[in-house]
Design goal:
The complex is a heterodimer of chains A (119) and B (148). Chain A is of the alpha/beta class and 119 residues long. Chain A contains 4 helices and 5 strands. Chain A is globular, with a radius of gyration of 13 Å. Chain B is of the alpha+beta class and 148 residues long. Chain B has one domain: Histidine kinase-like ATPase, C-terminal domain (Heat Shock Protein 90), CATH 3.30.565. Helix content of chain B is 34%, strand content 24%. Chain B has a 5-stranded antiparallel beta sheet with strand order 1-2-3-5-4, with helices on one face. In chain B, helix 1 runs antiparallel to helix 2 and helix 2 runs antiparallel to helix 4. The chains are: A alpha/beta (119), B alpha+beta (148).
């Protein structure tokens, strides 16, 4: 019943010349999204990836289990000395991410252009 | 003489994850009819979804022979939502998540549902049913928030 979460990775270079792995999600982010969220993150080449950008532009629904997966990703990224950023969240989920404290560990940007310009 | 009857909508969900979205959509439709602002409807959707997920997972323990009842009562200035399951009720009260403790492995990354419910609506109470059954969470979201 829960819609499948799709994910893919784009390797981009920021205007400042830094390599960034962009994880693009599509669909719901819920308890069934472990492979799409953590699996996709874990497939990134660790030594080469210093910046990770999460794209939520095509995500309509995130529940508390989905938020927990994002936090698990942040924990793994922190342990690997990677920095995580995100963009494309709706105003509502920007509020929710702020309420649970995620913004302390992952800066949010309104869109991809703003995120890449800041990195 | 009694006043007009409060319009009520009832939904019965199977205890399967994903079906919370049916209750979420229904609550959003009722709130829209009542004239709630879009951002409050989003708050309500998340609160109702989390209440249903708790009922499915913890109340009915994913037993598909049991269903989750959702009763929406559209009052003049507030929408009340009751989410009813066959569990014994929540023993704990909502706790504000501590992101630092979660990041350091001292707190489970999960377990934010009750906090989100309480933070996003005007009233939330968890009521244990008699005989250890028919427990419910009651949420109230007020229409006067529109003029904030």
């Amino acid at each position: 019943m829960q819609s499948e979460t799709k994910s893919r990775v784009d390797q981009l270079t920021t205007p400042a010349g830094h390599a960034v792995a962009v994880l693009r999600f599509e669909g719901d982010i819920a308890s069934t999204s472990k492979d799409a969220v953590l699996g996709t993150y874990q497939s990134l080449p660790k030594p080469a990836t210093k910046l990770v950008l999460l794209d939520f532009t095509k995500v309509d629904y995130i529940n508390s289990s989905g938020i927990a997966l994002v936090i698990q990703l942040l924990i793994e990224a922190s342990n690997a000395s990677q920095k995580v950023y995100a963009f494309g969240l709706s105003a509502h989920f920007t509020k929710v991410f702020t309420m649970v404290g995620i913004t302390k560990y992952a800066e949010l940007f309104p869109n991809e252009q703003a995120a890449l310009a800041a990195l | 003489m009694s006043g007009p009857k409060t319009p009520t909508v009832e939904v019965r969900l199977p205890s399967r994850l994903g079906f919370e979205k049916v209750a979420m959509s229904t609550a959003a439709a009722v709130a829209k009819l009542m004239g709630f602002r879009e951002d409050r409807i989003e708050d309500l959707k998340t609160a109702v979804a989390e209440a249903c997920i708790n009922a499915i997972e913890h109340g009915n323990r994913l037993n598909e022979k049991l269903s989750v009842g959702v009763v929406l009562s559209a009052g003049e200035d507030a929408l009340e939502v009751k989410v009813i399951d066959d569990g014994k009720g929540m023993k704990t009260q909502p706790v504000k998540p501590d992101i630092d403790r979660k990041m350091h492995g001292e707190e489970d990354p999960r377990g934010m549902g009750m906090f989100l419910i309480q933070a996003l609506v005007d009233e939330a109470e968890w009521v244990a049913g008699s005989n250890g059954k028919s427990s419910y969470v009651r949420l109230v979201i007020r229409l006067d928030k529109e003029t904030d």
